[in-house]
Amino acid sequence: MCVLPAVPCGVLLPRRVAFESTYRKKAIMSLGFGIFLIAVGAILAFALDVTVSWIDLKTVGYILMAAGFVIVIIGIALIARKRSTTAETRSAVDPVSGERITRSERRDDVV
User: Fold this and answer.
1) What would the pLDDT profile of 39-68 be if each residue is shown by its tens digit?
2) What domain count does the chain have?
3) Reported pTM
4) Under the phi-then-psi rule, with left for phi > 0, alpha for psi from -120 to 50, and beta for the rest, what region is 98?
5) Residues in Cβ contact with 43 at an 8 Å cutoff, skipping those fewer than 6 apart
6) Which domain, by its residues, includes 45?
């Protein structure tokens, strides 16, 4: 059963494509989670007028908003990071058997 309709069955997608899409999803999810924490923190800090004896809800709200801002900044930094790819191919002839030997090396470096 094919999962992607545009790709015929049996065709393997490059690993880098799958990695980048997963990477982007995680970065975007961190943005969403950060915004969620900011919203919950703002509700606790500004909208609720409830007194609980064992915890100060305003302080918890401010802490959640600060954590949300940090997560949003980290998410933006993850999305803005640049990637570089190095591909290297070498060919040589084996002196004993006379066969052509090809060696490929690929590195995906995060800068």
Assistant:
1) 999 999 999 988 899 999 999 999 999 999
2) 1
3) 0.57
4) left
5) 61
6) 15-83
